[in-house]
Design a protein that fits this description.
Radius of gyration: 27 Å
Strand content: 15-25%
Structural class: alpha/beta
Helix content: 10-25%
Mean pLDDT: 95
Number of helices: 14
Length: 605
């Protein structure tokens, strides 16, 4: 980054001055710029800006006050463009005006420590539908009301779908019209800060989903911002050649232009610094790092931008996480920048979600590939198993022609036994396989159909399926090792012990340092046939405590109540292990064993 550009763009937007406020904007092709607003009855002649270096225009307005609206009036030739401030933190609405806001929020002295990534359980939610009131779009304040529920569930990180101001009041959020402004329908700047403050009080981190692969395309004041463009394209903020094309519009930012790079960089820093967010999840990074959507044809401008932002996050905010949605199974994304990598901390793992969903939604047991499940369990990027986020549902996986797992299996409003058991079997695998597990809102109480930004979450199902909520809660206790019995689920080590595609049984071993209260063995049954006295090899001799039985009656009427107990290993070699034991497996169920006490007595001489 050239220092001259960084210095010239410092102070862009609206900031407090000795008297009133200073307004500055980058408009290199403008011939005149002025600020119009409530403070001058929107008179374009009242407060002309002076041009500084690098195409920046600025003026101080003593009369400007907090809460007033404003715009930049930009003249080029005979044309005038009244533009919302590209760095406005708050707007009246997506086609309204910029708002002067003051950074005087009371954080109430809250201090927050990010959970270790190997103990993190993420909950993806959409503010507009997560928790609503009286038929209105959801807000940060209505979402705050459900934070105690998430804490009790065991969630320690929330991933918020995009919050930048979008066209209208209802959207997924992946159409940012004003990237620095917080969606007004959700509650604006202070609403988001309240949400993050209250989440931190509950011990929950907040990760924000950011969209840098395109802007808009609707209600987009950045489009031909100062009147200039080439090839009928978007002007100073965008590529003005073939590189502008994306699946969402002709609005890919110009990652090679220093001012645009700084704009995106500053946006990323804003969420982490001013709003105290704990991480960023980048939407579809393939369309940033690839010139023509082919990952083998790198857009070096976009890729170096990602490296720059992620390196700065790691240096300036140790412990905060950066996550890529790339879905190309490319280890380079999470490799360090010094080795040519993207320097992301983790990435959504297509190598987990797709084979696992295929297996748990297959119409017949014979179609469930256990080898594909084994490969999904073992898959990792580089040298850290927590460089991946694993899930069975996300906003993408339960829309765009796909549905919630329960509805993929049984489309009726009340899911049948198979839908309940197979969807929760997927959850069991997600909570025990190596990686950072992620739920999508309502998954824990079997929300059905598909995700729509117009349909609020049906919270009555949380009571209707309280036994399933309990199952998720119990799994999260084990996954985060709050019971102090299953440290292995937070460890790097994983080993497939047993993979029987005929019987549809898989068993794997997880460990951190190894030993009692660390070593864990997970056994999963992917068929409708319960099995008694099924032999599994165990990695360590001793007594293994049963800490979870997914077929227990306590988890609801759809479970069969197959009885299972802790086991003492026998000195019978099996699965290439020196000891083994018989277990009782219910249909479509999971057993989790934790080593309670090790023994050398069962080791063969």
């Amino acid at each position: 980054m050239k220092n001259s550009v960084a210095e010239a763009t410092t102070g862009l937007g609206c900031h407090r001055a000795d008297k009133g406020y200073r307004f500055a904007v980058w408009a290199p092709h403008a011939e005149q710029v002025s600020v119009i607003g409530d403070f001058n009855t929107w008179n374009a002649d009242a407060h002309p800006c002076q041009m500084e270096e690098s195409g920046v225009w600025s003026v101080e307005i003593p009369e400007a006050m907090v809460g007033q609206g404003y715009k930049f009036a930009i003249r080029r030739g005979k044309e005038r463009f009244d533009r919302i401030d590209p760095r406005a933190k708050e707007v009246s609405n997506s086609v309204g005006h910029s708002c002067i806001v003051e950074d005087d929020f009371d954080w109430e002295g809250t201090e927050f420590t990010m959970p270790h990534w190997n103990e993190m359980v993420v909950y993806e939610l959409h503010i507009g539908t997560f928790h609503t009131s009286e038929g209105q779009v959801g807000t940060f304040d209505t979402a705050i009301e459900k934070l105690p529920f998430l804490k009790e569930l065991g969630i320690n990180a929330i991933e918020l779908m995009p919050l930048a101001e979008f066209a209208g009041d209802i959207s997924w959020g992946y159409n940012p019209a004003h990237p620095f402004a917080v969606e007004s329908a959700y509650g604006g700047v202070n609403g988001l800060k309240r949400f993050i403050r209250e989440a931190h009080k509950q011990g929950i981190a907040v990760i924000i989903d950011v969209v840098y692969n395109h802007f808009g395309p609707s209600d987009l004041d950045l489009w031909r911002f100062d009147g200039w463009s080439e090839n009928d394209k978007g002007g100073i903020y965008f590529y003005n050649d073939w590189r502008s094309a994306t699946p969402w519009g002709d609005t890919r930012p110009d990652y090679g232009r220093q001012e645009v790079r700084q704009y995106i960089f500053d946006n990323a820093m804003m969420w982490l610094e001013e709003f105290r967010a704990d991480g960023l999840r980048y939407d579809m990074t393939l369309y940033i790092r690839a010139a023509d959507h082919d990952q083998n044809n790198t857009n070096e401008d976009g890729y170096s931008l990602l490296q720059w932002i992620n390196t700065e996050v790691a240096n300036r905010f140790p412990g905060k996480i950066t996550i890529a949605e790339d879905l190309q199974n490319n280890p380079r994304l999470t490799e360090s920048a010094e080795h040519g990598g993207g320097n992301f901390d983790a990435q959504w793992d297509a190598a987990f979600v797709h084979p696992v969903r295929d297996a748990i939604t297959a119409g017949e047991d014979s179609l469930r590939s256990l080898q594909a499940i084994c490969d999904a369990v073992l898959h990792k990027y580089n040298h850290d198993v927590f460089e991946r986020v694993i899930y069975t549902e996300s906003h993408d996986e339960v829309a765009n022609g796909k549905q919630r797992v329960v509805s993929e299996i049984d489309p009726s409003e009340t899911p049948n036994r198979y839908a309940v058991k197979q969807s929760t079997l997927g959850a069991c695998l997600m909570m025990t396989a190596p990686g950072i597990p992620m739920l999508f809102q309502g998954q824990e109480f079997l929300v059905d159909e598909w995700f729509r930004d117009t349909v609020p979450l049906d919270w009555s199902r949380a009571e209707q399926y309280d036994a399933i909520v309990r199952m998720y809660r119990d799994l999260i206790v084990l996954r985060t090792n709050r019971s102090q019995l299953t440290a292995g689920l937070t460890g790097q080590k994983v080993q497939i012990l047993h993979c029987n595609d005929d019987e549809k049984v898989i068993a794997f071993h997880r460990s951190k340092e190894g030993g009692p209260h660390d070593d864990v063995v997970v056994v999963l049954k992917f068929s409708d046939q319960a099995t008694r006295d099924y032999r599994i090899g165990f990695p360590v001799p001793g007594h293994w405590k049963l800490v979870f039985n997914g077929d227990a009656e306590v988890y609801g009427e759809h479970q069969d109540g197959t009885q299972a107990d802790g086991i003492q290993t026998e000195s019978i070699e099996y699965d290439q292990q020196g000891q083994s034991a018989n277990v009782h497996l219910g249909a479509y169920s999971c057993l989790i064993y934790a080593l309670e006490s090790a023994s050398t007595e069962d080791v063969p001489a």
